[in-house]
Amino acid sequence: MAEDVHIWDQKVSWDEHDGIKSAVTGLLSSGLSGYAFEHTDIGGYTAIDNPLLKYHRSKELLMRWTELAAFTVVFRTHEGNRPEVNHQIYSDGETLRHLARLAEVYAAWKPYRMKLVKEAAETGLPVVRHPFVHYPDDPEVYGLNYQFMVGSELMVAPVLDPGEDAVEVYLPAGRWVHLWSGKEYGSAEEGVYRTIPAPIGEPAVFYNEGSDAGRRFREELERRGVL
Asked: Which domains does the chain have, with CATH numbers?
């Protein structure tokens, strides 16, 4: 039977050991451990506020964490343990509009998500997967720490560092369509690395050329006015 796991209580930081990067590590490792349904608190949970050590959630971190969560099974925010020192979704209009936009993104792939949830219930295969699940013969994917697939047809590389507006993505052999622009990347013969523009609101997301789920996802984004 498929299990659910909440990747929880990370610090409100960009840290690889207990921040946003560790949320991705948790998503991938829990999926390999038998937990098919994974999600993370948007923005993290644990803030620290004392003279010796401070971890306060920034606006940029919250917005990037929102993008990450939009491609997991559950899309949920959290004020954290010390709401008064954290930037919140209601702190300003821009942040609230960003959350609303990514909520539309999350809603737009519902048909594909429901298909994957059904598959998980029947087989135990997680919704969020490490790329080696589908590309076991490609040695490059084994070195990917912070890139993941949603099912077999979406590839996601979230921005996990402050001040960045592009991200390096590895695309296994095949043609891949960039979700936001519709531009095709990749090579039919071999995997390639590409640096992809990823301004806030447009995390690097691709779908396989010819993917019905990907095409319908993009069409639904257009219908909702997100693209």
From this structure: 3-108 (no CATH), 126-223 (2.60.40.1180)
